[in-house]
Design a protein that fits this description.
With 336 residues, the chain is α/β, with parallel strands linked by helices. The chain folds into 2 domains: 171 residues, Quinone Oxidoreductase, Chain A, domain 1; 136 residues, NAD(P)-binding Rossmann-like Domain (Rossmann fold, 3-Layer(aba) Sandwich), CATH 3.40.50.720. It is built from 11 helices and 17 strands. The strands form 4 sheets. Strands 3, 4, 5, 8, 9, 16 and 17 form a 7-stranded mixed sheet that branches. The protein has a 6-stranded parallel sheet with strand order 12-11-10-13-14-15, sandwiched between helices. A two-stranded antiparallel sheet has the order 1-2. Strand 16, helix 11 and strand 17 form a beta-alpha-beta unit. Helix 7 runs parallel beside helix 8. The N and C termini lie close together (10 Å).
Length: 336
Amino acid sequence: MQVAAFAELTGPDGVELLDRPNPTPGEGEAVVDVAACSINRHDLWILQGDSAMVSGDALPFVSGLDVAGTVREAGPDTAVSEGDRVLLCPNETCGTCEFCREGPENRCAAFSLYHGGLAERALVDGDRLIPLPDAVGFVEAAALPTAYLTAWHMMRRAGVTAGDLVFVPGATGGVGVACVQLLDLVGARSIGTSTSAEKLAAIEELGCDHLVETADPNEMLAAVKDVGRPDATLNHLAGEYGQVAMAAMGRGGVQVVCGRTAGPDLTIQAAPFFLGHQSVHGSTMGTQPELERLVGFVADGDLSPVVDRTYPLAETGAAFRDMVDRDVVGKLVVTP
């Protein structure tokens, strides 16, 4: 089989198409013919050498978390069968700690993520496969596990309900678009930002209620406060936008942070934070039952994941170049 491997951790030019032996499933495992695998900032950070998860010793490395496809072969004691349409929940957990026993599983101390989807076939844990209804296409399914699951779990961490005003800085990437759509789904109001008027028009069509065209923190803060005091912020940018969110939100406001696109640090001022009874939560991915619920939203026609474009496996490097250039709205999906 062919894989799109990271031969060098130097950015998009480090991706090479390589041949690998076909995998064989063991007990509890399955081999999936990959129909679609979306890419994420997580993959890009690895490719750029900016992740502690993968070092040069692991090269060539096959990334790719968000796998959708058809079961090719199932090993003994596996709950799926050949021909099943499936979506992989990429969570990897110990299965024995208090969070694995009682939930939520994404707080497991040994929590990690599956890698290997940027390939024609993927060897996976059968218990992590979610059945896909015929109404859900492989490409739209592959958009769900990282971006939409992360957004949904952030909303739950923030306690977002119908009528809430929620600030989404950087609302036109994968997680940002997912936040906008899911906030609209539950009846919350959103404030989304971007430096592109064209991208803002796109998320307005997806249900974003208030649009802010700037990356300047001071301009952003003023524009958000003109709309109102957000009840919550869903922040995948971090950096200086952490303080923008805290200054914009009202008393008791909740900020949930899931990424570091704008920098490795989260900057906030202490006094307004504690005097305003605000809170900040970290959030990584979500749980398998939450992903199953998202699949249900798509199957019922309540949610249509946004895919900007698709690429054959041989053009995986081009997909990462487009991600670096930020000339996208929504998800980028590789279709081996």
